[in-house]
């Protein structure tokens, strides 16, 4: 029995509220159980210097957690004058994951920045950020297309992410914090709707795992990604 009472292959309840903020070109508040992340997309008529003049667009991301997103207050990273290593790693992951689902030629020479702000954390914040970030990105691109600034749809394939792990010897889908903190094996799976892999992060925590167990987690991840991409499409319809 999972601490949450869910079945082994059952995700937490997922809800999405689009247009959550007034000013961003695309925004979505995604809730995966008690993990809540606000994702916004901002369009800028510029690209980083290393691709300037190439005709290619760019998608990047920033990630942060509010001080009371967790059960004890965290100090704002801005007060320390630098981002932590975990923050940098996660926002790079979000950016490269979302770029994998975008035709950067069709996007044109502009940058879209996805801001992911964790309002409340209960495990899987990077996965929720990627899944919600794609929705915000899709909505922003819709505005570009409606305005005629982009002719061909640059969004190739929905991108989503889900965590899976081995807890008490059992493979689980969509770990919440009590499961994640005690899991013997923990993994994050980023995939497209068509089933293509973008990135897999797996590690054993004081244990090991077999090839067969890895395949079980991949099967669970595919199930979760299919559910999430269906939610993404419904939210953007």
UniProtKB/TrEMBL annotation:
This is Ribonuclease PH. Phosphate binds at residues 86, 124-126. One of its GO terms (biological process) is rRNA catabolic process. It holds the Pfam family RNase_PH. GO terms for molecular function: 3'-5'-RNA exonuclease activity; tRNA binding; tRNA nucleotidyltransferase activity. The gene is rph. Homohexameric ring arranged as a trimer of dimers. InterPro entries: ExoRNase_PH_dom1, ExoRNase_PH_dom2, ExoRNase_PH_dom2_sf, PNPase/RNase_PH_dom_sf, Ribosomal_Su5_D2-typ_SF, RNase_PH, RNase_PH_bac-type, RNase_PH_CS. It comes from Sulfitobacter guttiformis. Belongs to the RNase PH family. Phosphorolytic 3'-5' exoribonuclease that plays an important role in tRNA 3'-end maturation. Removes nucleotide residues following the 3'-CCA terminus of tRNAs; can also add nucleotides to the ends of RNA molecules by using nucleoside diphosphates as substrates, but this may not be physiologically important. Probably plays a role in initiation of 16S rRNA degradation (leading to ribosome degradation) during starvation. Keywords: Nucleotidyltransferase, RNA-binding, rRNA processing, Transferase, tRNA processing, tRNA-binding. Residues 10-140, 157-224 form the Exoribonuclease phosphorolytic domain. It catalyses: tRNA(n+1) + phosphate = tRNA(n) + a ribonucleoside 5'-diphosphate. Its EC number is 2.7.7.56. It comes from the Bacteria.
């Amino acid at each position: 029995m999972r601490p949450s009472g869910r079945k082994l292959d059952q995700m937490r309840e997922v809800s999405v509220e689009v247009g959550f903020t007034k000013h961003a070109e695309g925004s979505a508040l995604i809730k995966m159980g008690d993990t809540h992340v606000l994702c916004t997309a901002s369009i800028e008529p510029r690209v980083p210097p290393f691709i300037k003049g190439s005709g290619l667009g760019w998608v990047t991301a920033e990630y942060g957690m509010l001080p009371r997103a967790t059960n004890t207050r965290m100090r704002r990273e801005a007060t320390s004058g630098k981002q932590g290593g975990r923050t940098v790693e996660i926002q790079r992951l979000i950016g490269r994951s979302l770029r994998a689902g975008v035709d950067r030629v069709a996007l044109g020479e502009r940058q879209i920045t996805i801001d992911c702000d964790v309002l409340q954390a209960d495990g899987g914040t990077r996965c929720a950020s990627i899944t919600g970030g794609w929705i915000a990105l899709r909505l922003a691109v819709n505005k570009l297309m409606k305005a005629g600034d982009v002719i061909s749809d640059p969004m190739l394939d929905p991108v989503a992410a889900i965590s899976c792990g081995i807890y008490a010897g059992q493979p689980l889908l969509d770990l919440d914090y009590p499961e994640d903190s005690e899991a013997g094996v923990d993994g994050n799976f980023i995939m497209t709707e068509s089933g293509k892999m973008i990135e897999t992060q797996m590690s054993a925590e004081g244990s090991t795992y077999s090839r067969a167990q890895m395949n079980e987690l991949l099967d669970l991840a595919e199930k979760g990604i299919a559910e999430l991409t269906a939610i993404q499409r419904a939210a953007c319809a």
